[in-house]
């Protein structure tokens, strides 16, 4: 069963993910430093994460000049795997306790400051996450093309308590991207903290990652706040997108392979 899920040949994007050593382009622990406090404080209001609209952005002091890079990220997955919860978690927003099917398209803007290793520059990565309910995608043919239009990355979600959603990954990847797409791909396993009911084994996850070359991250079910919990996925997404842009511009060669890397956002 897993072999069927991993039988496609790796594309240039999967090979890119394999060639990039995590933390080689960005300081992954920078959010914990004293230097970062000024930047992260601009993402909060009254000690809570600020919700940014489509035309809003963090306001920095005149003495600090920070460039912003924009990326569109589509969140793909079966119904009830946790797409809306993941977007809210990354944005530091509350999530309704009762599950509901997303109607139409919902967008969530997340700003994430990152310090580059080579230049020491700090950039604001502006992620616009697009989430669309599975039933809506089936009913309206124009929604999936709208979500995929000019997207830079796609998050393929499965639930650790729903093995069918893990088996469905190959179909997700086939629907979400083409063989020639220059798109960053990341797999996120949700509800990882519900380990007593896990239907997907670590061996299956490792085998999938080794065969596909797509990095896998684990996410818990509760929204807990705190930069440390969202940092692994947001830093990895920023690094992969920055690496992709620099390769496209011919500014850096691929790096030696470092396979088997995964990340966690599990638990409070």
What gap, in angstroms, lies between the N and C termini?
A: 33 Å
Mean pLDDT: 82
pLDDT under 50 segments (min length 5)?
Answer: 1-12, 256-261
Largest sheet: 7 strands, mixed
The secondary structure category is alpha/beta
Rg of Cα set: 18 Å
Describe the structure using short key phrases.
268 residues; single chain; 31% helix; two-stranded antiparallel ribbon; 9 strands; 10 helices; alpha/beta; seven-stranded mixed beta sheet
Describe the structure in your own words.
It is a single chain. The chain has 268 residues and is an alpha/beta fold. Helix content is 31%, strand content 22%. The strands form 2 sheets. The protein has a 7-stranded mixed sheet, with helices on both faces. A two-stranded antiparallel sheet has the order 1-2. It contains 10 helices and 9 strands. Strand 4 (105-115) and strand 5 form a beta hairpin.
Q: Quick gist of this model?
A:
The chain has 268 residues and is an alpha/beta fold.
Strand and helix map with partners:
Blueprint (H helix, E strand, L loop, with lengths): L1 H4 L6 H8 L17 H5 L2 E2 L2 E2 L17 E10 L6 H9 L13 E11 L6 E11 L1 H6 L3 H6 L4 E7 L3 H5 L1 H8 L7 E7 L11 H11 L3 E4 L7 H22 L13 E4 L3
Parallel strand pairs: 3-5, 3-6, 6-7, 7-8, 8-9
Antiparallel strand pairs: 1-2, 4-5
